[in-house]
## 1
Amino acid sequence: MAEIKDYQTIVGKENIDQLFRLARRLGKRKVIHVSSTRTGGGVAEMLNSLVPLMNELGIETKWEVITGDTGFFEVTKAFHNALQGNRVNISERMLENYLENNEKNASILDLEADIVIVHDPQPASLIRSGKGRAKWIWRCHIDVSRPERRVWKFLKGFVSKYDASIFSMSKFAHNLPHPQYIIFPSIDPLSQKNRELSQKETDEIKRDFGINNLKPTILQISRFDRFKDPLGVMEAYRLVKRNTDCKLILAGGGAADDPEGFEVLTQVKEQKKGDPDIHLLFLPPTANREINALQRDADIVLQKSLKEGFGLTVTEAMWKKKPVIGGAVGGIVEQIFNYQTGFLVHSVEGAAYRIRYLLHHSNMARKMAENAKEYVRRRFLVTRHLRDYLSLFIALDHPQDDYISI
Ligand code: UDP
């Protein structure tokens, strides 16, 4: 496990010193993060790094995970879909089940702290029965810019009780009766997923997956989720394949809080249609080193999402100096700028066009990928994320100062 000082060579001494200064200013504080899973998805990915680093900075930090029955995760997945704009059917009974499960969680979990940060909609209603003396912050990681109105109204009832909320982009913010902050997510350059790997390690992992042909590789790493558009990725690959030989790797697993993954994977398997150049890799939640190797080995990384909170897979690939093509949605547009740090696309045809372009313009691809890495270094590493959290905690101590800049 990396220590804060290990990041100095990556982000510079001043950034690290600043973290210690902020932590000293904050003083003794107990913080609890609450999320819905310890494995799978971007939230778990980030908390795995942030929690130990916050502790090292002297902020006593814990991470609690809620549990629920099958019905609970069905309704929270329906919330997720509805908040990102899809139509869903949610009955009154399902809403009651959501509240009951969180009431149970509130009675089991240790929520005694100075600051409680509740991640995403799944645990949002904990505040009904859990709020004691602590400041409660709702951290929303998904694109709630155009939510289905009924679901948002239901959730807003709880979100409004929080002392503050955090969104990943300003366009996700809402009319809420408390301060709202924008904090970008981040990746950890020293985690198993992002640390440097030797060519030997990468080759071994590829061999274990049975990937041995030398055709250019297009890769998408994602949970099997409709918003990640794996079927669209296959269509784009097929358009490219008409005149440029290549292979496609679609790799991902499920998240413990996502019951739809199996269904989407089944559809993807059908659409593979026996093409030996399409590799479908179903990954366990521990496959961090494997994802690292696949990303490092890819020629082009795709994240053709139709909706996206932020898209950490984009950040991860950019950090590894890969040319990335991303759907022009959510936080992906904060990361990719056309011809500078990658390409944004709006359609299957657009994705195919940009894949072909990159396969035939390797100098341009290299230059964009180099810019991409530097852009991530400045904006999307865990050290910047820690700084934002510490600054936010300090700002919470001064509610009268509306505009403490973080
Ligand atoms: N990820 C993983 N295993 C998988 C699929 C994804 O570890 O099978 C990781 C991926 O590398 C990234 C995170 O989960 O770190 C996904 O974050 P992102 O913001 O891209 O999407 P989310 O799943 O949170 O919608």
## 2
Amino acid sequence: MNNVVVGRFAPTPSGRMHAGNVFAALMAWLGTRSAGGRMVLRIEDLDPRAHNPEATRLLLDDLRWLGLDWDEGPYYQSQRGNIYSEAIRSLESKGLIYPCFCTRAELHAASAPHASDGTPVYAGTCKGLSQAEVARRSLVRPPALRLRVPKANEALGVIEFDDLVYGPQREVLCSECGDFLVQRSDGVIAYQLAVVVDDALMGVTQVVRGHDLLSSSSRQIYLQKLLGYDQPRYAHVPLLVTPEGRRLSKRDRDLDLGVIRERDGGPERLLGQLASLVGLAQEGEPIDAARLVDRFAWDKVRACARKSCVVDA
Ligand code: GLU
């Protein structure tokens, strides 16, 4: 099975997919299918507050409607808690995890600079707590679990990788990210941990997703190294913006698939529009997903990655 590309869809069922989610899914699917690879589908429903069976049902239905098929899954993260806990125990046994009692307000009040994704760099407040102190505070509120990152001059202190679209990346974990959460205080496993464990156990070799997750990749590579996993290739794809320059989000329903399906009937118009953003289709050319496979090349995505990708309904 060596050298077989394994790609994945990893949607969070927090609402209907919008054109930007479809674009990322299309790139993931084309990146895999054009290499003759296999697709895995994983539903990222870790947070019980975001648990929404109807949204999940619509997601699967929308992917089928788009013609973006998969070979394995769906897996549900909500059913894989024991697997994640085992990974956390393995990190704990290496002395890399500590309990953190800081509240959200305390974290944001800390004067540390913000990491590239907007979360504050953790100031290390709970790093040196004694066992007695941990026991005392645990009576008041359950702790979150945090993973230590090395100093810049220690092993794994600087993470470097080559993104298939955005090229060479480099992050100094301690100054640009800080010790990060692997489990929240309400027991919910953190995205970074779950995604790394799942990608490894599902044999994923190629991670394609939106540019907003580029800054998560170094944390994920760090976790892969600690857990002894292989590192997948990363390809981050541009986020789509409206003609006014606003990033598409699930909250703004203007370009969601409910509206688009009702308007267009079939997926060809939307797929053509998205494909034309990266030079895979002529502007205004309707096309189905299968016909894009032979036209796909990462070079074409790369060539478009630095300009903004505007979609109009
Ligand atoms: N579940 C994430 C999302 O829907 C994607 C995670 C990933 O691709 O690593 O935004």
